[in-house]
Design brief:
about 170 residues; Histone H3 K4-specific methyltransferase SET7/9 N-terminal domain; mainly beta
Length: about 170
């Protein structure tokens, strides 16, 4: 009898640690902005594994999240609160170069943001207010050949991305 108890205990523990208990985004369905396990009407609460890793609370993303490209390279990392991006976020190109970094507030870009071309050259930088470009922005074209060979000096200014912005509209200088 003692051996059967031990065997049942070991079996139970192995089932709890089995990878089949893990959820991936493919195991969930989204209905009206809320995530559910397939064939369920109960909003999903739990951990997600795979290319996207993080937590769900009552069917919404909540807490720290990390996402990878299929190659395994880091794609992005940041936090969610009540299903919306919140706080610092960092995104990367597939080659590992920094793509962008900045902050979110209630799901909207807020404050200073910077964005780079996949060769590491600055693409643009400026501030967001309520998810819209605001204040002075500067932007540059992808002069990758000049940048890599050193024959062209600095990148050329992108006039659409450079100027004083209000409510996402470039007012010029």
């Amino acid at each position: 009898m003692k051996h059967i108890k031990t065997l049942l205990t070991l079996l139970f523990i192995s089932l709890l640690s089995s990878p089949s208990w893990s959820q991936t985004l493919g195991d969930l369905v989204k209905r009206e902005g809320i995530y559910y396990e397939k064939f369920s009407d109960v909003p999903f609460t739990g951990e997600l594994t795979g290319q996207e890793q993080g937590s769900f609370k009552n069917g919404e993303r909540d807490g720290f999240w990390i996402r990878y490209y299929e190659s395994g390279q880091l794609f992005s990392k940041g936090n969610y609160k009540n299903g919306k991006k919140e706080g610092a976020w960092v995104n990367y190109w597939g080659n590992g170069e920094l793509y962008s970094k900045g902050n979110y507030k209630n799901g909207e870009k807020e404050g200073a943001w910077v964005n780079y071309w996949n060769n590491g050259q600055l693409r643009y930088k400026g501030d967001y207010e309520y998810g819209k470009r605001y204040g002075f922005w500067e932007g540059y074209n992808d002069d990758a050949t000049k940048f890599r060979t050193g024959t062209g000096g600095n990148a050329t200014v992108n006039k659409e991305w450079t100027g004083i912005f209000k409510n996402n509209i470039n007012k010029g200088f």
